[in-house]
């Protein structure tokens, strides 16, 4: 979000929004509602009025104010890492968060290990919470360090599976992760930390269990080893545009909801789609060779889309948003836009266009009236504007 440093956030400015960077100069009470932020900066002279009544979350905070005003926005968030501060200052406000003495904007582009083994062993000797770890758990920690590598936003994982201890180490790794490359990994279960919502790319060809974490920023997924989808899988993948699941079998139930930007779906072995693809506004092409039925799915679609499903049995009335493709063509990028698409889109968007036209006209009229009143006022006080 790119705004002036002097921007004032009024009440209810953001609701259910994901932000990579939020700078707060001035904010009214409850300006942010259910907002998830990767990095937040509060300035020394910032003004934040009132404590938020909503649960907001931030991973990294650089709070330069004297009274740690960020607490008013992220008041129930116990996880953030604080930057350009000290543990002594945090303790003054009853906080025991992890802190760094450098800027939140400092990043490392060189290859680094996910954990410094020497520093970890030193911590192990002094930290009472870590002393209870047995030899097997310590072995897992060292193994995780050997099997992971970070470089300029990309995290490489060479493990085939990750234990809770290994995932905890990755969760606590402070660098921004834009991409995860894990060609051997078979499961993403346990990736529940909110920071994974900001991962843009996933290279996980051998994953057979996606878990339930919504990777909200991922745009393309090819998971051809995935054979079964749980209920509410792929939920709130907001930025996903392309999904390929060539070996996913059985029925698809309560999946792909609120994938607003999803355009292409390849699911050749799915037989029934039930209560799925809800609020997927931009669907353009679905390839489902084995599909026999669609139940309460594909609601709220903004335009016609193509579906290859030779075994689909349904009444023509139920296909008002779909164009049934009789012959299978290999999908090669974006299909040519049909004139019917323009007609349907025009019908959808015209009411909104008319609404904004009316608003614009109303604003112009109000400006003209204000200008006239100002001219009259100027004459009354005999002053040139």
* Average pLDDT, all residues: 83
Uncertain spans: 323-337
Q: Element order, helices and strands?
A: EEEEEEHEHEHHEEHEEEEEEEEEEEH
Largest sheet: 6 strands, parallel
Please report the number of helical segments: 6
CA-based shape: flat
Global Rg: 26 Å
CATH class group of the largest domain:
Alpha Beta
How many domains? The number is 3
The rounded distance between the terminal residues' Cα atoms is 36 Å
Tell me the β content: 15-25%
Determine the structural class based on helices, strands and strand pairing.
alpha/beta
Secondary structure tally: strands: 21
Strand line-up in the sheet with most strands = 1-3-5-6-7-8
What is the topology?
Layout (H helix, E strand, L loop, with lengths): L7 E2 L4 E2 L2 E10 L4 E2 L2 E13 L8 E7 L6 H4 L7 E3 L3 H6 L6 E2 L16 H10 L8 H13 E4 L2 E4 L6 H9 L6 E3 L19 E3 L16 E3 L19 E3 L5 E4 L10 E3 L3 E5 L10 E3 L5 E3 L9 E4 L13 E3 L14 H43 L4
Organism: Trepomonas sp. PC1
Keywords: Signal
Protein name: Leucine rich repeats-containing protein
